[in-house]
Here is the input.
Amino acid sequence: MAQQRFTCDACPNEVLVEKRSLAHTSTQWLRPTSCCPELAGRPEGTVAVCTRLRASIERAVRAGAVPVGGEDE
Here is the structure.
């Protein structure tokens, strides 16, 4: 399964996202986390976890826009 571009519902930030299972979400930020209103101002080197982005991805999974698992699973 390949990562796919995903735009957060709460802001225009884009990430690459991959769901290998319901519990596993992999994201790769395409812009600095300072572009995210929830993460702006956090010290560099911290783990970037945006609850708004996470909720957006979960809504997309429920809608079928972000597939879960892969053919190799």
About this structure: The chain is about 20% helix and 20% strand. The beta strands are 4-7, 14-19, 25-29.
